[in-house]
Design goal:
The radius of gyration is 17 Å and the shape is elongated. The longest helix has about 30 residues, at about 30-60. It is built from 4 helices and no strands. With about 120 residues, the protein is mainly α.
């Protein structure tokens, strides 16, 4: 289950980077926002998981508390990335017929977020 998610994130990064570097694309600001959101989407949970490991090694008594807090923070990171992605697509609304493209992308992103939360709950 994790392999298709990783592949989709890699393709998302590739697409957004190409949009950011395009000389003729009118929605560069939106592409920058989506790139930042994707970076937060990928790096946020990894940083939180590493933080939990480091803190639990330093003080094992905090492990139960971290088990309650970290999943909520991961969910917040995913929610923030989802909102930022939506904001990036709204910035690119100058493109023709963007409304018909925005909803499926947001729904797909939301599904990936839900799947990642389920997968990360097993590891965090």
């Amino acid at each position: 289950m994790i392999f298709p998610i990783i592949v989709s994130i890699v393709f998302r990064f590739i697409g957004v980077v190409k949009l950011r570097k395009s000389e003729t694309f009118p929605g560069k600001a939106g592409a920058n926002t989506i790139f930042t959101a994707t970076t937060i989407f990928v790096c946020g949970p990894i940083i939180l998981a590493l933080l939990r490991i480091i803190i639990s090694l330093i003080d094992p008594t905090l492990n139960e508390l971290l088990a309650l807090i970290i999943p909520g923070l991961v969910g917040f990171v995913f929610l923030f990335a989802l909102v930022a992605t939506y904001s990036g697509w709204k910035k690119m609304e100058k493109m023709e017929d963007i409304e018909s493209k925005t909803v499926p992308i947001i729904v797909t992103t939301l599904l990936v977020v839900i799947i990642l939360i389920e997968v990360l709950n097993d590891f965090v």
